[in-house]
Structure formats: C-alpha cells, structure tokens
C-alpha cells in the first residue's frame, strides 16, 4: 500500500521513530531506531511496509529498499513474524544472514531472538538461493550489534541501547551477559552501543 514516506524525523525511541509529513506524524517501527539519530530534524526518505492484522495496523520503516525487501522475504517464512524479522535485520549484517542461509548454518541463525532450530531450518528451506537480489553486498542500513538490560549506569546512550536490545527480543539474561563489556568500552553513541552489543551477542 505504501512504498515510502518523506518527511522530518521528530522522535527517536527504543522501538520506533516518528516521521512528520504534512502535519501527520507516522510511527514507524524500525530495526534500529537510533541508526537514524544523525538524521533527526532533517528531511528523509524512509521505505515502509504496511502490516495489517486483526488487532492492529503497523508501519515498519527501513533505510533502504533492499532492507525492506529482505524484511518481506523473512516474514514470508513460517514462524517468523515482523518482530522476529526486525531482530534479524538489526542484529545481523545482511551479507552474513544471507551467507548463513546459503551455507545452511543453523547455529548462526538460532542466535537471533525468537529463532529456534525449526524456524532456522524453515528459513533455509524457503530462502536458500533466493536472496541474491536482496543483499548482494552488505547494506548500510543494517547493523550488527548486541544489547542487554541493566541497572542504570549513568550513561544515557548505553541505557537507551540496552532498552533497544530488549525491544528486539533479547532476554535480560543475555543482555546482562554483555553489559559489563559494553560499560568498559569508550563512550559511544546509542547506535554504536547497539551495534557493538549485537556483535557480542552473535559472536
């Protein structure tokens, strides 16, 4: 129904961003909202996917058309819903995800929140050899990172990153496991903490 929205980013939170166009604020769920931080209060074009279910109509936003297409491929797999697809997009570099599917690397795929062995096998069966047009090269709009929920550290960027990781579906236990390592890093932006966190979670 919608291909993209052009407007100004007026809000960025752990789960979604808001893009204002002609006085209307569109709430867009995205893989990593904080990746848009450098574009806040500027005009952007964001590709969108309109998801309709019985109890809600949701808009998902993506930096690139390729990212959107990969999302559509993922949600076509039985057992993967929009939230699971967002976690895969946020957590894994597209070329790594495509490579894991083509190599039938279930061990890599089950590291994503909500992806068990059965779903990983279904991803391979449904998508192997069918993603070249989606991600021939790593996409700039996707990231690799990790996250964890932890006690307030006085570092607002880190706390926001941990909330974002939790929103992607990582458990408090998984986040706690990497929190100490993130706290030891030199101060980074929220997006950079998320990327680093995902790298640790998938490592």
TrEMBL record:
SMART domains: HhH1
SUPFAM superfamilies: DNA helicase RuvA subunit, C-terminal domain (SSF46929), Nucleic acid-binding proteins (SSF50249), RuvA domain 2-like (SSF47781)
Positions of region (Domain II): 64-141
Residue runs in coiled coils: none
Tree of life domain: Bacteria
Entry keyword annotation includes Cell cycle: no
Major localization listed first in the record, in broad terms: cytoplasm
Domain notes: Has three domains with a flexible linker between the domains II and III and assumes an 'L' shape. Domain III is highly mobile and contacts RuvB.
Protein name: Holliday junction branch migration complex subunit RuvA
Organism: Domibacillus epiphyticus
């Amino acid at each position: 129904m919608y291909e993209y929205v052009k407007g100004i980013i007026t809000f960025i939170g752990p789960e979604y961003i808001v893009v204002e166009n002609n006085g209307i604020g569109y709430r867009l769920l995205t893989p990593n909202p904080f990746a848009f931080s450098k574009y806040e209060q500027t005009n952007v074009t964001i590709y969108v996917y309109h998801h309709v279910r019985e109890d809600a109509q949701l808009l998902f936003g993506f930096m690139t058309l390729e990212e959107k297409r990969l999302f559509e491929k993922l949600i076509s797999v039985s057992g993967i819903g929009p939230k699971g697809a967002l976690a895969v997009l946020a957590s894994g570099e597209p070329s790594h995800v495509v490579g894991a599917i083509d190599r039938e690397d279930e061990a890599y795929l089950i590291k994503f929140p909500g992806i068990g062995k059965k779903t990983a096998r279904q991803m391979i069966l449904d998508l192997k050899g069918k993603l070249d047009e989606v991600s021939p090269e790593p996409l700039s709009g996707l990231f690799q990172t990790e996250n964890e929920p932890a006690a307030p550290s006085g570092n607002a960027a880190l706390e926001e990153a941990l909330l974002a990781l939790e929103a992607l579906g990582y458990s408090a236990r998984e986040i706690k496991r990497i929190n100490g390592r993130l706290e030891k890093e030199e101060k980074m932006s929220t997006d950079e903490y998320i990327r680093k966190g995902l790298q640790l979670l998938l490592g």
